[in-house]
Each structure stands twice: as C-alpha cells, then as structure tokens.
Amino acid sequence: MSGSCQVAVIGAGICSEAESAAAYAVGKVLAENCAILVCGGTGGVMEAACHGARDYGGVTVGIVPDTGNGNQFLTIVIRSGMGHARNVLVVQSADAVISIGGKEGTLSEIAHSLKTGRRVFTYRSWDIPGVIECTTPEEAALRAVASARRTRLAEPG
Questions:
Q1: How far is CA 110 from each of CA 2, 12, 30, 31, 48, rounded to the nearest angstrom?
Q2: 155 located within any domain
Q3: What's the pLDDT tens digit per position in 83-104?
Q4: 135: domain range?
C-alpha cells in the first residue's frame, strides 16, 4: 500500500444502528480508496467501520486501550495498555479524522486532532468550530481521503 494515507475513524464504543450503518459506509469508502483505517479498536463505531473496510478488502489498525485483541475486523492490533490516553495515538497516527456520533472520548479525540492540525470531518457528531460537517458518511470519507492525500503529498520525504 505504498503511498496510502491513514484516516482515523472515531466514535462511541456503543452506538445506535444508524451510527453503525454510517460507520460501515465510511469503512467501505475508505477501503475502496485504498486508505488505511485507524481507530481505537473496540466496538460500536470503530467495529462497524472496520467491518465495512474489511468487507471491501481494506486494512484496519486498532490501537486498543488494553492488552486485548480488539474487535474481530482488525487487520493489525496495537495493544497500548494506555486506556483513554490511546486517543492521542489514534489521531496522531492519522492524516485526517472522521467523527461519527460519539461521546466524551470522541470529543477528546476531536480536540487532539484540532490541536495537532488534523482536519476533522464529522457526520452527526459534535458541532465544534474547526470541524467540517458532512451531510452523508460517504461525503465525510471522500473528503477525509482527499485531505489526507493532500497532507501526505505536502510532507517532505
């Protein structure tokens, strides 16, 4: 996957059916566009996004909060043992971020993303200055991939 970008998908570990369907759609679009999906590796939005990506041949990386194996759709598991502190690693590993729904942990990931200059695309998530609200999950995924690729091209080396 030379030259691929990495896009973080963030959201609650327990989510609604609508959020799960949106996350699955995001994962599908990321896989179809050869983007590596990075997430917190547990359930809810993260698992649904990984499921969508894997169903379409994508690569998924989960930075799990403990020393477990994360969800069943992870290609690569990084056992952080860091609890919520792993949220920083998730967004720092990404070229762009997609937020779907979410609770306080998602809010912290958005804040870390904005603080470190990563563009955040949201679908039915927190309304915060600096994030880019999208009307569909597919729009969020496509805009995140485009932004991530621009970021990768702009970096030296």
A1: 27, 12, 19, 22, 19
A2: no
A3: 999 999 999 999 999 999 999 9
A4: 6-150
